[in-house]
Amino acid sequence: MAVESTLDAEAVGASGAGRDERGDLGLNLADLIEMASANPIVGAALADLDVHRARLGQAVWAPWSGFSASALFTAIPEQRGLSELRDGTLTRYAEDPQWSAVEWGPYVRLGLSGAIPIWTFGKLSSAREAAEAGVEAGRGGVERARHMVRSEVRRAYLSLLLAREILLLISDGRGYIDEARDEIRARIDRGEGGAAMIDIYKLDALTADVDARELQARRLEDVALAGLRMLAGVDAGVRVADVTLGPFPIERRPVAEYVEMAGRGRPDLRALRAAAEAQRAKLRIERARYYPDLALGVTLGYAYSNVADDQHNPWLSDPYNYATYGAALLLDCPLDFGMDYWRVDEAEAALRRVEEQVEVLSRAVEAEVSDAYAAIVETQARTRAYDAGRTAAKRWLIAVLQGMTLGLHEAGDLTDALIAYFSNEANYLSAVWDLNVAWVRLAFTTGGDFLDGLEPRE
Q1: What span, in angstroms and rounded, lies between the C-alpha atoms of 27 and 35?
Q2: Residue 162 burial class via C-beta count within 10 angstroms: exposed 0-12, middle 13-18, buried 19 and up
Q3: Which of 165, 203, 169, 170 is closest to 184 using CA atoms?
Q4: Could you give the CA distance from residue 126 to residue 63 in angstroms, rounded to a whole number?
Q5: Hey, which of 110, 288, 348, 440 has its CA 20 to 30 A from 4?
Q6: Inter-residue contact 451 to 250 (CB < 8 Å)
Q7: pTM of the full predicted structure?
Q8: What confidence tens digit (pLDDT) does each residue in 49-81 have?
Q9: By three-state DSSP, how is residue 194 classified?
Q10: Cα–Cα distance between 266 and 256 in angstroms, integer?
């Protein structure tokens, strides 16, 4: 049984009518989940992953980040003459030594300097390992966002199917109520026994209850459609496929397999374990601060001006014309040991905190999986019981309706059968919804993909 709906909540005809332009019955669950992959929640998680990847790139390029270049382009006044040292005295000689404030010329100065780390006692490698762990944590965040969106899409889809089934049940049930009311009124008019106004009052009360359930179902339908619009970004007017609500076609496995699956693949647990690895790497960095850094320093320099004579005396400084280069081993050892001690202490405390969070989540995951599994066991049994009950109630109702025409039953029997029919049908639908939601919850709790591609249909 199914009632077709659109995302603008407009009713359509029979379940096969109102096909969209693709020529099928509309979007199914797999379509909605695929469309929800562009949800902003997933987009935010992907952006966060890009942040971690950028940090990894920074860690990879960190050894080469100690270089800097400089350039100066200006004009200076003309300076002519050569200098040398004679008998310890600086002398100046030239045919016409001069300094002019009128004649000016260009002056260019270029410089490059930096240091290449040779040995840092693990600082650079630990920074790279921390960044790699951050990327892994980011991947876990993306998977968790996708799992969360898929779970919410499934919940909204299941709610939509439940609302449709209830509306169709009400549509069918009203016919039974009308038949019963007509038969009871006919008996009363004929003055036959087995019927009285109190039976009409019972049907009126049942009708009021059905009306109230219809309002609730329509509200549930609206909320489910709004949820699908928000989660999957589906445009108004696009139809959702007409599917008869039923349990997910999946076999239940032992609970230990689901616990192992959660411990191995649950995204938030993986992300937290990666965060712990990142914190361990940070602790190694802080401990390495006690030790110096050995690096190779490199410097290059060049300056030129055509209005200043090049001084060839190696003992004199000539800032206007030169070309220099050099390299040296550098040892850098900050002496802030007090700060290093407290940085290490902070990093150790932060690591203990993350490790405790991993332990807490691991225990919580096991409890959540066990609880979701127990819900599946219970709802499966409840679904089977209500399925048997609704079959019996429908047979009961049909038998009473047939017997009423032959005068074999009283009106009270018909009212009881109607109540049993509605109750068992509604209870069965509710149990199926609870069962499917329990499966959705187990899939989210374990991080498993065992529901992918499955439709909750009979």
Answers
A1: 10
A2: buried
A3: 203
A4: 13
A5: 440
A6: yes
A7: 0.79
A8: 999 999 999 999 988 888 999 999 999 888 877
A9: coil
A10: 15
